[in-house]
Write a structure and sequence with these properties.
Layout: E1 16-20, H1 23-35, E2 43-45, H2 48-55, E3 63-67, H3 74-84, E4 90-95, H4 100-109, E5 113-116, H5 121-136, E6 149-155, H6 162-175, E7 181-185, H7 193-196, H8 204-210, H9 217-223, E8 225-226, E9 231-234, H10 249-261, E10 264-268, H11 271-276, E11 286-291, H12 295-311, E12 316-324, H13 333-340, E13 346-349, H14 352-361, H15 365-368, H16 373-388, H17 404-409
Parallel strand pairs: 1-2, 1-3, 3-4, 4-5, 6-10, 6-11, 7-9, 7-10, 11-12, 12-13
Antiparallel strand pairs: 8-9
Length: 426
């Protein structure tokens, strides 16, 4: 739900215009436009090409709805539309092609949403309301853009405690660092994020996977489960007989929304998901690799660090040795560090009593261990995440341009709010 690149109201600019190819689309659009308080006479016959022709000789509206169903080359035509639109125009498109790749390409080109025909009045109403909210939102100048720390927590082996570390870091970011934080648990069938926080997981993550085109700020607000005023969880408890079929697009869109709604996000990334969706790591600027000081842990830490260097070169990595028992190490810390060719950044001591207490109370291990040696280690982990994540006052660079015309001209606005109801199949 990123804010668009905002311009002033502008003399002579309509609030809304629409270009529809057929009578049914035009009728539904007029009806919803009237509900929004917009001028129904601004709904014209003719699709995307007619919009390009008309707007080449007149001012573009603040919110533009175009029907692409007669377009042979949608992406090329959208680029043509960008050439005649003024900066700040919020563009919504509709069409008959149910293709998730087209949907993503269109969003990547700078439009706010793509809806699948025949139009649904409720979906259209939600989309227009999102566009209006984006237009009315306060202007975000470059210096006002908040930084976002995106942290991926990955365990090198099962049982090393990566999920415990992920929930603890999310809690620390929300409570100690005072950053509104999203926790995403991608173990779809056996995740423990909700269990750790004493919450019901809900259906939010499953709904996102099944309907990635619905992911927007409103979806985030409804789907995420609140652990506190500053910590929200998105997880699943999918039936073990039900494989979750996805190309990973929903996870990328979720992180895009997290970047604008939250000050930080933590993803609990199971190894099999990392292998299946390697492209997700480009969304994260901090990686926390959780291991144990064993021979197998050393081997898999070497492999994972090598993988991250190749697939996520932008990521700053923190190596965390978990459940450390000083007098019960399989190999020495020195030998372990020589094997992985780098130092262990954080060592979390094993404390069975505190772990049991956290489980009984439904709290994170970091919360119940605040006054212990383990708590001090977690505090140091938080400090390193904040430092490497750019929380020293620097601002993360936006990954894409803002509005449609801003995308082509390299404007430094943020992405318009994404959302919508295209039923693109993942």
């Amino acid at each position: 739900m990123n804010a668009p690149f905002k311009m002033g109201m502008g003399a002579g600019r309509d609030m809304f215009q629409a270009y529809a190819c057929d009578d049914n689309t035009a009728a539904i659009t007029r009806s919803v436009a009237v509900e929004m308080g917009w001028d129904a006479e601004r709904v014209y016959k003719g699709g995307l090409r007619n919009a390009v022709q008309s707007l080449s000789v007149s001012a573009s509206p603040h919110v533009l709805f175009v029907d692409m169903s007669e377009s042979i080359d949608p992406l090329n035509d959208i680029n043509g539309l960008a050439e005649v639109c003024e900066p700040g125009t919020i563009v919504i498109a509709c069409g008959q092609v149910n293709d998730v790749r087209l949907y993503r390409d269109l969003l990547g080109s700078g439009i706010q949403d793509y809806l699948l025909k025949p139009l649904n009045a409720e979906h259209l109403r939600e989309t227009f309301a999102s566009a209006q909210a984006a237009f009315l939102a306060p202007r975000l100048e470059g210096g006002d853009m908040h930084s976002h720390i995106a942290t991926a927590v990955i365990g090198v082996r099962g049982g090393v405690g990566a999920s415990t570390v992920a929930t603890s870091l999310a809690w620390l970011l929300s409570e100690n660092a005072k950053r509104p934080t999203a926790l995403l648990d991608l173990d779809l069938h056996f995740g423990t994020g909700a269990l750790t926080l004493d919450l019901e997981p809900g259906r939010g993550l499953i709904d996102a996977i099944e309907n990635p085109s619905r992911i927007d700020g409103l979806f985030i607000e409804r789907a995420m489960v609140r652990a506190s005023d500053t910590l929200a969880l998105l997880s699943a408890e999918a039936p073990i007989h039900q494989p979750m079929l996805t190309d990973g697009g929903a996870f990328h869109q979720l992180e895009e929304e997290f970047r604008s709604v939250f000050g930080a996000s933590v993803i609990d990334m199971p190894r099999h998901m990392l292998i299946q969706f390697p492209h997700l790591m480009v969304d994260y600027n901090v990686g926390v690799v959780v291991t144990e000081i064993t021979l197998a842990g050393a081997r898999d830490t070497i492999r994972l660090l090598s993988w991250l260097r190749s697939n996520a070169p932008q990521m700053k990595v923190i190596v965390v040795a978990n459940k450390v028992q000083a007098n019960a190490l399989e190999i020495s810390r020195k030998d372990f560090e020589q094997s992985i060719e780098r130092k262990i950044d954080i060592s979390l001591p094993y404390d069975m009593r505190l772990a049991a207490q956290a489980a009984k109370l439904g709290k994170t291990l970091a919360e119940v261990s605040k006054s212990s040696k383990l708590g001090a280690s977690y505090a140091e982990a938080l400090s390193q995440v904040l430092e490497l994540g750019g929380a020293d006052g620097t601002v993360a660079e936006p990954k894409k341009g803002g509005s449609l015309i801003g995308k082509l001209e390299g404007l430094k606005g943020m992405l318009p709010k994404k959302g919508g109801k295209a039923k693109a199949e993942a």
